[in-house]
Design brief:
alpha/beta, Purple Acid Phosphatase, chain A, domain 2, 6-stranded mixed sheet, 6 helices, 12 strands, globular, binds fe (ii) ion
């Protein structure tokens, strides 16, 4: 099977680009399964029920999240109702929502998506390494195809995690920094890996946000309301080829498409 993983979709510009580009991309690359990180779809901060519905209509099957998942308060009760939206598994016990999902594709093939957060420069999370092991084992009983969104700040933590689960999952795709890294590879035991897939948002921006507002913040240290930047968008993604039987990856390719 072929998976498309789209990096953090930022605001309306990001959503518009996905709507315009995704059908053609699915067709051209013969994509079976589409995952996207949606933690920034609502003006850069969080998600809403209606925006999630909008993303599913574009052809996305599963939405992963990260530290911005709770930014919109109304989304908190919603996340427990829709298993196609996952939040990092390693939030403390009692937090709403699920950290993983097993999705059945048309034709009956099952694929699992597991969302984890790093904890270097990110607070309040349980250990992603120790949390991942039992969950991967549980998911493996249902399917060998397991794609991990590892939402983390530090490159070292992401790289270490990739090696830690090599051969136990099909892919580890890093998210959160919004900057695509050029280190995609299939690790020794068959796990596809990239430190960060990058964002889907305005190119002329500071990780999706208005340039002048962010520079102003650095110059003055005053609180500033950040807004999504405007202008042409870069859609950042990877495609991953996975063996249906073994769950091992045979390739990972980086993509950056511009819109318009
Ligand atoms: Fe993000
Ligand atoms: Fe994030």
């Amino acid at each position: 099977m072929k998976v498309l993983f789209i990096g953090d979709i930022v605001g309306k510009p990001g959503r518009t680009a996905v709507k315009a580009l995704l059908p053609g991309l699915v067709d051209k690359c013969k994509i079976d399964f589409v995952i996207a990180n949606g933690e920034n779809v609502a003006g850069g901060f969080g998600l809403t029920e209606s925006l999630v519905a909008e993303l599913f209509r574009t052809g996305i099957h599963i939405i992963t999240t990260g530290n911005h998942v709770w930014d919109k308060k109304d989304f908190i009760p919603y996340i427990s109702k829709d298993d196609r939206v996952v939040r990092p598994l390693n939030y403390p016990p009692g937090v709403p929502g699920n950290g993983s999902v097993v999705f059945t594709l048309p034709g009956g093939l099952k694929a699992a998506v597991l969302n984890l957060s790093g904890r270097v420069f990110m607070t309040g999370m349980d250990c992603p390494f120790r949390t991942a092991g039992p969950e991967i084992e549980r998911l493996s009983a249902e399917t060998k195809i397991i794609i991990v969104d590892f939402h983390a700040e530090a490159t070292s933590e992401k790289i270490a995690f990739g090696y830690y689960v090599d051969g136990r999952v099909s892919a580890v795709v890093g998210t959160h920094t919004h900057v695509q890294t050029a280190d995609e590879k299939v690790l020794r035991n068959g796990t596809a890996y990239i430190t960060d897939v990058g964002m889907t948002g305005p190119s002329y921006s500071v990780i999706g946000m208005d340039v002048d507002q962010i520079i102003g913040r650095f110059l003055t240290s005053m609180p500033v309301r950040f807004e999504t930047a405007q202008g042409p968008v870069v859609l950042s993604a990877v495609t991953i080829d996975i063996d249906n039987e073994t769950g091992r990856a045979s390739g990972i390719q980086r993509l950056q498409l511009t819109y318009p």
